[in-house]
Amino acid sequence: MSRTMPGPETRTPTRRVPRAAYSLQEFADLLGIGTTKAYELAIRDELPVHAIRVGAVYRFPRARVDRLLGLEPEPKADAA
Prior knowledge:
alpha+beta, about 30% helix
């Protein structure tokens, strides 16, 4: 019994979804610190943004990191 793989014409296109979190490496780079130091701080919960831990993987919510680093666009002032 052989299994056939779908050809390009039968595959559904994948949709790119923006990631909601930074990896530990990305967050360390943004902070200008090394990965080893970032792991040490994450383990002790001493980073300025609380890590989400999934197994041995650390993730940092993009919205909180961007807000911390001032990477969010300025909110628009309401027209009076």
